[in-house]
Write a structure and sequence with these properties.
Blueprint (H helix, E strand, L loop, with lengths): L11 H27 L3 H6 L12 E4 L14 E8 L3 E6 H6 L6 E4 L3 E3 L13 E5 L3 E9 L2 H7 L15 E5 L16 E4 L7 E3 L11 E5 L3 E4 L12 E11 L7 E7 L5 E4 L7 E3 L4 H10 L4 H10 L8 H10 L3 H10 L15 H5 L5 H13 L10 E2 L2 E2 L11 H8 L2 H7 L7 H7 L2 H14 L2 H25 L6 H4 L12 H15 L10 H10 L3 H10 L1 H6 L2 E4 L10 H6 L10 E4 L1 H7 L16 H18 L8 H14 L8 H9 L6 H14 L9 H4 L3 H9 L13 H6 L16 H11 L3 H8 L14 H8 L2 H7 L5 H6 L12 H8 L2 H9 L12 H5 L5 H28 L5 H10 L5 H6 L15 H11 L2 H12 L8 H7 L3 H21 L5 H7 L6 H13 L1 E2 L1 H10 L3 H6 L10 E2 L5 H6 L4 H33 L3 H20 L8 E3 L4 E3 L28 H4 L9 H8 L2 H10 L5 H14 L2 H8 ...
Antiparallel strand pairs: 1-2, 1-5, 2-3, 3-4, 6-7, 6-10, 7-8, 8-9, 11-13, 11-16, 12-15, 13-14, 14-15, 17-18, 19-20, 21-22, 23-24
Length: 1299
């Protein structure tokens, strides 16, 4: 609207003309700016041009026709298109003619004088209404014209931009210069202003009556007022209310904002202007709180003001909520109803009257219904705004509800003849049109149509017809585009959707395309850009839809940028360590790419969800390993007749997975590979689209590498079949290959050389991991065996780590030839494919070729592990070392067998070799995949064979030494479970599985889940019940109890062990029978030597248990209290057992594991008790009296479980004395802790022990100990009211002794 500049001395006529010109210029600039802001790229630029717009019968339009133009009647220049004529002319019936019933008054108007009408039919103000316009300043005016489109014609010409978001000015108003304070010569000379929108921030009503008169005492909200004079920079905060008096009413002055009131403020020295006659701006002084609340509701004051009134006057709305709700509904106050719903916990959405009228039914009866509809409706039309009232909430869908009379709320508006309210309700700009289109069922539409027809109101008929047209197109949009991803093309184009069938299908498509153009920039955001749906149409192969809309708007498809998900290889099937080493940016982090329509059609989109390795985190290593094992199995074991291809092999595996009910997400890597080896389901439609485009457009050149990059073999077949690609020509003559040559890794210095297109594409298929296309290219004449860039196809597959392609090549006739070719590429000279895979780190591919028996030596005699040792990756170096391990093991086995067979070998030499070689190292045997002791290994010997050879040829002493090493192993490189399983034969493992399965079936039978016949069938080949009992008895005999061990010790004349085992501490001691373990049965046959070794192992085991239990009991006595003589006895037993173990040759300095019992024996078990140890079985929680001492308050539980602390706290004086004399590890801090604790708890015997020079010299200073005793005793004395009587009795002598 602008601000008028006034120069001193200029004449008034010139000033008036200048202001008028500025108003009109700003109007044009605003509309142009709105159009410019809408330009969002090619789409908006093309379709904002009104000359390109296509019109159809039924369209609403604005037009300029001087013959019938009446400036004060917009219905004479807006109308409805009745037909489209050639040469850009339209047959239009004016809206006024329709209202007058003159349906024949059709006029012909050129297209350049017409533009689309998206606006509402009605406005708030009529011509002649007194208003206030925002024209800097706010000024009073009179409405002169509605929808002044001639101003657009005179300013910028017609037609204007064709889109629903473009604003058409709503009013042209003449400024009211004949007011009492305007001081201008003549009202006829007043300029015009335009209101771009029918909203309060542009134009509002000028009050005709006022709540206050001059001299009334009022309170003013200064935050919503304008200061006049006085101090400047008055700091305002929200709800700053000041007392004052009304000094003027209806104030309209030149170049100042129009004000409802001017008020002087009491004691402030300045005045203010009030712009709105509402309670949140101005109120009567000393008014009652409830009175103001009801006034505010009637005036539709804001939620924040209603909250302020309730807080300021301490109003509890719940007391009279029914009255408040009734008032809010009577005046259709959207602000009050929103306040009640959201701030007062009053569910107004659920209100119903006796006639079944919901909230909207009751609002429809109010004279303020239009205001309510526009305010609430606007919040639903603008996506970014928060809903004032959720009228479509679940359980309260007010738009769809009928009252007791079977009427919708909109029917109440029609019955009342309120055309403005109906227009607002059905408006997509400020009403509920979008919501009504979503929820109104056909029967509800018929109810409305019937009511409109019965009203005989032509304007309401036009309003409703416009809504029906909008509704039909929006419903089509929802069906075809909004929910396109959820429906198939067949579901969309079924027989029920007759709009897109027959002769009118093309026009219907053009109409829908235009609807999307018109509304996709609208603030509601309900309609998306048609060409974002174009991507889905193309990539899903929806050919019928594509053809329909392509012919409706070809340019839209051509100019659109297609955002699709790439199907390029990201290394997800290579060696998993290499995948993890790749940069984040080179993985699946950004799978979306922007392409043209041809590439989008080739790439497409699969309907299944393919999960990539980012989603396998935590299990990717294991599953990619399983996948690679499956590839190796197919290449080395499968019969070509039963399993001819990798595709068939994976299909069989996945069918089994599905049949077994296994979670498919664990096997997503398998399903994805299957998808890459077969055509997409929608390729027929995509092929039709591609074929259609090629025939429609000239000079189309497809990128021959795109099908390979995105693994779309069908597109490659299509190009060859349509003769778009000649595979037998030279590659250096293909422009696409020349452009791509820098990215082709198999080329040497990007030179295409003398190769054919087919040969080049075969290598490219390896680079892009497209096995399906490679198989297709090689079907007629086999694999090309030419050398390209210094290597053949197998070399390059090994370089890329394509294990699937290597497996496929191995089944082809050219395999032997490719294997035998030496690589001559500079960096891999003299190498074969297996060596290239090794140095590149593709170990799975390397292992596959080794399994396929390829030559392992290169042309210079180097092995794959020699190449691997040059790798920068640790996992490759580990593999190389592991490859060497079997050879080392074989040499060691050969050496030990030679040593034991040579009777001249010294015992020490044999022992040294066993200790420092791998011949009897279980972990080494298992690393070489010999997982049980009876599995055939190096030179055909199993571990059991080697052990037996050694033990049968050597003296019993060294045999016992060997068996002790195996029974009590010190190496922890192998997990304990694996070590135990190593000594279980395959036969025994199967038997244990059968026994477990039989036990499981027994339990199922007991529960009645299967009948006897089924049970017999399931357990036919399983061990019988008797065999189960025998197995249980055998396992029971494997455990030797205390009595068994006593008998054993007695028989062996082991007096120490025999006597000690009888003592009470060892009643639960048990050991596993060594003969039940496969070590001895493998080492020795039955006989005297076996018994000697068994006895030695059993003695060692029993002595280890004695040591362990002795130490455990020692700690228990210290923790719970006990006799000193028991402590001494246990210490003696522990020491004697340790000495006995040393004599048996057991190494007490190392931690050992005993597999039969599953026990660990630490070197600390043989140590004597040290005061630095903790008694973890004793815990002093936060409620214990010890925690009340400052020094011990914050210590951890472990710190408070030290031996000295436990003894001092519990008052174990004899044990304390013994520890002080016999145990090492005492420190000065420990001594002071004992003094503090014993003094605090009144344990005088212990305190005296440390306060006097005891049996040994103490480490702490005597004065420190005495000071601590006095201090702690004083603390206890001060709190003796809470202390036990025994403590209080001990205090006087304790204090005296300390003093």
């Amino acid at each position: 609207m602008g601000k008028k500049s006034r120069k001193k001395g200029a004449d008034k006529a010139a000033r008036k003309d200048k202001l008028q010109s500025r108003r009109e210029h700003q109007l044009v600039q605003r509309n142009r700016a709105d159009s410019d802001e809408s330009d969002g790229g090619d789409y908006s630029t093309r379709f904002s041009n009104p000359n390109q717009r296509e019109y159809f019968a039924g369209d609403r339009v604005w037009f300029i026709e001087s013959r019938i133009y009446e400036a004060d009647n917009p219905n004479t220049y807006r109308g409805i298109v009745k037909g489209v004529l050639p040469r850009g002319q339209l047959r239009i019936i004016p809206l006024q003619s329709i209202i007058d019933g003159d349906d024949l008054a059709v006029i012909t108007i050129p297209k350049n004088k017409v533009f689309p009408d998206f606006q509402d039919f009605t406005l708030r103000f009529e011509v002649g209404d007194q208003v206030v316009c925002s024209c800097s300043p706010w000024s009073t005016a009179v409405v002169s014209y509605q929808w002044p489109i001639r101003e657009i014609q005179s300013a910028g010409g017609l037609p204007v931009d064709a889109s629903s978001h473009v604003t058409v000015p709503t009013y042209k108003c003449r400024l009211d210069w004949d007011g009492p304070n305007m001081r201008v010569p003549a009202a006829d000379d007043a300029p015009f202003v335009a209101a771009p929108e029918d909203l309060d921030y542009c134009i509002k009503i000028r009050p005709s009556s006022f709540r206050f008169k001059m001299g009334d005492s009022v309170v003013v909200n200064l935050f919503k007022a304008e200061q006049i004079g006085g101090r400047s920079g008055y700091k305002l905060v929200k709800n700053t209310w000041l007392r004052g008096k009304v000094t003027a009413v209806d104030v309209s002055k030149f170049e100042t904002n129009y004000a409802v009131y001017e008020c002087s403020l009491v004691g402030e020295g300045f005045a203010c202007r009030i712009f709105d006659d509402k309670d949140e701006n101005i109120a009567r002084a000393d008014a009652d709180g409830r009175e103001r609340l009801f006034d505010a509701i009637e005036q539709n004051c804001s939620r924040s003001h209603l909250n302020f009134l309730c807080g300021h006057f301490d109003i509890d709305v719940s007391v009279f909520s029914d009255l408040v709700v009734a008032k809010a509904i009577e005046f259709a106050s959207s602000q009050a109803l929103s306040w009640l719903q959201h701030d007062c916990d009053v569910d107004v959405l659920s209100t119903r009257d006796d006639s079944g009228n919901n909230l909207l039914h009751q609002i429809a009866k109010s004279s303020n219904a239009t205001r309510f509809i526009k305010e609430v409706g606007r919040s639903s039309c603008i996506k970014s705004e928060k809903l004032m009232l959720d009228l479509m909430a679940i359980g309260n869908n007010l738009h769809h509800e009928l009252n007791n009379g079977g009427e919708l709320w909109i029917q109440s508006l029609i019955t009342r003849g309120d055309a403005k309210a109906l227009d607002a309700a059905l408006s997509p700009h400020c009403g509920f049109a979008w919501n009504l289109c979503d929820i109104l069922s056909p029967d509800r539409i018929q109810l409305l149509e019937k009511s409109v027809h019965e009203s005989e109101d032509v304007l309401m008929r036009c309003i409703f017809d416009s809504f029906l047209s909008f509704h039909a197109l929006y419903q089509q949009f929802n069906l075809y585009f909004r929910y396109f991803g959820f429906c198939t093309e067949e579901q969309i184009l079924d027989d029920q959707n007759a709009a897109f069938w027959g002769d009118d299908a093309n026009q219907s498509a053009r109409s829908l395309v235009r609807f999307c153009r018109d509304w996709f920039l609208h603030s509601s955001k309900k309609v998306v850009d048609l060409y974002s749906c174009a991507t889905e149409i193309v990539v899903r192969g929806s050919f019928r839809l594509f053809k329909l809309f392509y012919e409706a708007d070809k340019g839209g498809f051509w100019h659109h940028v297609y955002n699709v998900k790439s199907k390029e290889d990201r290394g997800e099937y290579i060696q998993h360590e290499l995948y993890e080493l790749k940069d984040v940016g080179s993985k699946e982090c950004d799978m979306n790419i922007e392409v043209d329509i041809f590439k989008a059609c080739i790439i497409g989109r699969r309907d299944i969800r393919l999960e990539f390795r980012e989603e396998w985190e935590g299990q990717s290593k294991s599953w990619i390993t399983v996948y690679h094992q499956l590839i190796v199995q197919h290449a080395t074991e499968c019969d070509p007749h039963d399993c001819p291809s990798l595709y068939e092999h994976l299909q069989q595996f996945c069918k089994k997975v599905v049949k077994d009910g296994t979670d498919k997400k664990h096997y997503s890597i398998f399903f994805k590979r299957i998808a890459l080896l077969e055509d997409d389901e929608n390729i027929e439609g995509r092929q039709q689209i591609l074929d259609y485009l090629i025939h429609k457009e000239e000079s189309v050149e497809l990128d021959v590498l795109q099908p390979l990059k995105h693994r779309q073999c069908w597109a490659l077949r299509f190009m060859i079949e349509k003769r778009l690609l000649q595979v037998d020509t030279l590659a250096r003559r293909n422009l696409q290959l020349i452009k791509a040559s820098p990215d082709l890794l198999f080329l040497q210095d990007s030179r295409l050389e003398e190769m054919t297109v087919k040969c080049c594409l075969c290598f490219a298929a390896v680079q892009y991991d497209d096995l399906q296309s490679l198989e297709f290219l090689c079907q007629p004449s086999g694999i090309p065996v030419v050398v390209v860039g210094g290597w053949n196809l197998l070399h390059f597959a090994a370089y890329m780590g394509r294990i699937e392609i290597i497996a496929w090549i191995s089944s082809q006739p050219a395999w032997e030839l490719l294997v035998a070719q030496v690589c001559v590429r500079k960096e891999f000279q003299n190498a074969f494919a297996v060596h290239i895979a090794a140095i590149r780190g593709h170990l799975q591919a390397c292992d596959l070729m080794i399994e396929l028996k390829v030559p392992l030596e290169d042309s210079t005699g180097r092995l794959p592990e020699a190449y691997a040792k040059a790798s920068p990756h640790q996992y490759v170096l580990d593999w190389a070392e592991k490859r060497v391990t079997p050879k080392i093991l074989e040499a060691d086995v050969k050496k030990i067998l030679e040593l034991v067979s040579d009777h001249a070998s010294a015992v020490d030499e044999i022992k040294h070799f066993i200790e420092h070689s791998t011949c009897l190292a279980v972990n080494t045997w298992m690393e070489c995949d010999y997982n049980t002791f009876d599995a055939a290994g190096p030179l055909g010997y199993s571990f059991g064979d080697v052990l037996h050879q050694c033990c049968s040829s050597l003296d019993v002493e060294i045999v016992a030494w060997i068996c002790l090493r195996l029974f009590f192993r010190c190496s922890h490189d192998l997990c304990t479970y694996s070590y135990m399983q190593f000594w279980v034969s395959e036969k025994q493992k199967q038997r244990e599985k059968d026994i477990s399965l039989r036990d499981c079936y027994d339990k199922i039978l007991e529960k009645g889940k299967i009948n006897t016949e089924m049970y017999d069938e399931l357990t036919r080949d399983l061990p019988s019940a008797r065999e189960l009992e025998q197995e249980w008895a055998r396992k029971t005999k494997e455990t030797l109890t205390q009595n068994d061990l006593v008998d054993f010790a007695t028989d062996q004349s082991h007096d120490f062990l025999s006597s000690e085992l009888r003592k009470k501490w060892f009643k639960n001691l048990s050991c596993k029978e060594p003969l039940a373990y496969s070590i001895l049965s493998s080492a020795l046959n039955k006989g005297e030597r076996l018994e000697v070794v068994r006895a030695k192992i059993l003695r060692v085991n029993a002595l280890l248990e004695v040591v362990k239990i002795s130490r455990k009991e020692l700690r228990q006595i210290l923790a719970r209290g006990g006799r000193v003589d028991e402590l001494e006895q246990l210490m003696s037993i522990q020491s004697a057992a340790t000495d006995a173990l040393t004599r048996e040759g057991y190494d007490t300095s190392a931690r050992a594991y005993h597999p039969p019992s599953g026990s660990f024996y630490d070197s600390s078990d043989f140590d004597s008790i040290d005061m630095d140890e903790s008694l973890y079985s004793v815990e002093y929680d936060q409620g214990h009296p010890l925690r009340k001492q400052l020094l011990f308050m914050s210590r951890s539980s472990n710190d408070l479980s030290g031996i000295h602390i436990v003894l001092a706290t519990e008052g174990y004086s004899e044990l304390m004395s013994f520890c002080l004399t016999n145990f090492n590890g005492w420190t000065a801090t420990m001594e002071l802790d004992v003094v503090r604790i014993s003094s605090y708890f009144g344990h005088s015997t212990i305190a005296e022990m440390f306060l006097s020079e005891g049996p040994k010299n103490l480490l702490s200073d005597a004065s420190d100990r005495h000071s601590e005793a006095i201090l702690r005793s004083s603390v206890l004395w001060s709190t003796m009211s809470d202390a036990p009587s025994c403590f209080i009795c001990c205090l006087p002598p304790l204090l005296a002794f300390a003093s």
